[in-house]
C-alpha cells in the first residue's frame, strides 16, 4: 500500500501534474520546466525528486545537463497505469493547454543564456 500512496501523493500537487503533462510531450531539463511553469529552480527540483521517487519520471545525465522524461512504469504498476491514462486526461484544461503550447519553444540554450 505504501507504493500506491507514494504515487498518489506525488500526483496530488497541480505543478507536478503539469510537469508530467510537459514531459509527455518531450524530454526536458530543469531550466526548461522552470521557464514553462514560472517556478524557482529549487521548487522544480523538489517536485522532480518527488515524481522520481514515485517512479513517475526518470532522469538521464548528458554532460552538464540532467534531462527528465516520463518513467517507463517498470518500478511501479500504479505509476505505469497512471502514466498511461494521464496522456489522455486534462488535455482540454485551459491551464494545461497553455503550458503544453509553450513546450515546443522551450530551449535550454536560449533559457540559460538569459540567466
UniProtKB/TrEMBL annotation:
GO molecular function: DNA binding; DNA-binding transcription factor activity
PROSITE patterns assigned to the protein according to its UniProt record, in alphabetical order: HTH_ARSR_2
Pfam families linked to this entry: HTH_5 (PF01022)
InterPro entries per record: ArsR-like_HTH, HTH_ArsR_DNA-bd_dom, HTH_MetalResp_TranReg, WH-like_DNA-bd_sf, WH_DNA-bd_sf
Keyword DNA-binding attached: yes
Annotated keywords: DNA-binding, Transcription, Transcription regulation
SUPFAM superfamilies named in the record: Winged helix' DNA-binding domain (SSF46785)
Domain HTH arsR-type: 1-90
The protein, known as: Transcriptional regulator, ArsR family
Annotated source species: Desulfacinum infernum DSM 9756
Amino acid at each position: 500500500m505504501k507504493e500506491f500512496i507514494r504515487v498518489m501523493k506525488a500526483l496530488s500537487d497541480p505543478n507536478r501534474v503539469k510537469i508530467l503533462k510537459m514531459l509527455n510531450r518531450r524530454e526536458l531539463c530543469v531550466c526548461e520546466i522552470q521557464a514553462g511553469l514560472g517556478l524557482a529552480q529549487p521548487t522544480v527540483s523538489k517536485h522532480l525528486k518527488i515524481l522520481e521517487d514515485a517512479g513517475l519520471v526518470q532522469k538521464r545525465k548528458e554532460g552538464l545537463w540532467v534531462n527528465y522524461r516520463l518513467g517507463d512504469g517498470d518500478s511501479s504498476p500504479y505509476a505505469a497505469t497512471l502514466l498511461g491514462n494521464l496522456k489522455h486526461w486534462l488535455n482540454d484544461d485551459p491551464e494545461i493547454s497553455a503550458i503544453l503550447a509553450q513546450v515546443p519553444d522551450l530551449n535550454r540554450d536560449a533559457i540559460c543564456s538569459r540567466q
